[in-house]
Amino acid sequence: MTSDLATLLRFKREADATVLQAISQAIASLARGASQPSANELQEAIDAMNRMRIADELFKCHLLGLPAEPPHLNPPELPPLGLLRSWIADTSEWFAQHAAGLSPSQMNDSLSFEFTNGQQATMSRADVLMHVVTRGGLVRGAVRNLLGDPEDLATQRFYRQPID
Asked: What is the pTM of this model?
């Protein structure tokens, strides 16, 4: 399971980068006069990716046993796309490395924490990592819809070459 989750997290890392690149390309198209996606849809896409990043950071804190509200997690404004890309890349890489370094028994470690809505939770490390993977896929799918992308741009690159 450890190597499977590490592979899925490497896929997430690459898929997140692909979606952020698509957002950049859509912003450039809009600046050149394209009407789709709209500026509002692009803001929603960036916001969705930022909320995914915040949730990923919270789960990273849970995995590390740290307080779940570091000050940079909920800025009052959306970060610039370049900074968001950097944050997401760093966090995604951390998850991939973390999963790759865990033994099967560590994957089964039980973690207790509180969700942001105050609900208490207990999950294994493997469950937390799988949650990060699956939620990321849901966010990327929503962003793809906002961008009006009929193809699954987050996986197109993997049809041509395997992930690292």
From this structure: 0.87
